Amino acid sequence: DLYWVGNGFTYVLPLTHAEKVEHGWLAPLAKGMDLVQTPDAGVYSGRAPGRLIRFELLEDRLLCKVKTPRIEADLQIALQGTPLRVCSRAGYDGWSYTQKRNGLPVSGEVRVEGQVLELDPRRYRAGIDWSGGFMRRETVWQWASINGVLDDGRDFGLNLATGINESGTTENVCWVGGERFRLPPVMFHFDRDAPDAPWHVADEGGVLELMFEPAGSRSERINAGLLASNFRQFGGRWSGRIRLADDRTVAFSGLGGFAEDHYARW
Predict the structure, then answer these.
(1) CB distance 238 to 144 below 8 Å
(2) Do 53 and 23 contact (CB within 8 A), yes or no?
(3) What angle do CA 87, 156, 10 make, to 5 degrees?
(4) Quick one: which of 45, 2, 48, 43 has its CA closest to 25?
(5) How far is CA 181 from the centre of its chain?
(6) Hey, is 2 helix, strand or coil?
(7) Residues 59-114: tens digit of each pLDDT
(8) Residue 203: alpha-carbon gap to chain centroid
(9) Residues spanned by the domain of 206
């Protein structure tokens, strides 16, 4: 919800390079968008004729309902572990806030054009990303998100970003078995002109080194006068290693997740 315009979308992207299925809409003056101003409780929804995206945040779980012409879903995400919470300066007099959780067990059902996918909470993991604030007039960021289960059965989640929330701190963390570990600033290496090429993400000190192989993407270009967005979110598989603060090393291969490249003019 950007006040002048609201944007609702949902998509399903198979990691087998199969065709993406999506549905989205723009709402002038954010009509039909009802978003509470807190990440810890309440109902967030976007409505239009024949379309609904609704999240209800309870004390121990997030309920998600999607109803569009091509995609429907009823999901329940368990809230576990300590969330990431970061508030930082943005530009001269702005600020940004983000709250995120990753590696969360998810159960329920997704229906895509008549096909049904049952989500078993022993296998499937989800992430929750809530962000808001008064950001720089022009903002550019890269973002990485991983949700999965390690070979030893522990839940694993990761969030990395550059270009935003970097004023004295970062939003770089991972969760291993529900325990949160801070991570250092990172650099994203990728080719904007070769969207199918692998991404490489690493820090200067050798704490982490990750590789991302895209399987598909959702992109969107909006030029609405004062507002503009060039958004590319890639789904695919992450592999790599991370040295944790207690000197343990976590290694993984082929975990599902996202990589994003985004320019916004608010």
Answers:
(1) yes
(2) no
(3) 70
(4) 48
(5) 18
(6) coil
(7) 999 999 999 999 999 999 999 999 999 999 988 899 999 999 999 999 999 999 98
(8) 21
(9) 5-265
Give the 3-state secondary structure of residue 28: strand
More confident residue, 251 or 168: 251
Residue 107, CB half-sphere, CA atoms under 13 Å: how many? 6
- Do 175 and 155 form a contact (C-beta atoms < 8 A)? yes
- For the chain, the straight-line distance linking the first and the last C-alpha, in angstroms and rounded, comes to 11
- pLDDT confidence of 255, banded at 50, 70, 90? very high
Q: Tell me the C-alpha distance between 240 and 190, whole Å.
A: 16
- DSSP code of 18? P
Pairing of strands 199-202, 187-189: antiparallel
Structure token pair of residue 193: 């002109």
pLDDT computed for residue 72 by the predictor = 97
The DSSP line for 36-68 is -S-SSSEEEEEEETTEEEEEEE-SSEEEEEEE-
Q: Which amino acid is at 153?
A: G
In angstroms, rounded to a whole number, what is the distance separating the alpha carbons of residues 42 and 10? 20
How far is Cα 108 from Cα 119, in angstroms, rounded to an integer? 5
Question: In total, how many domains does the chain have?
Answer: 1
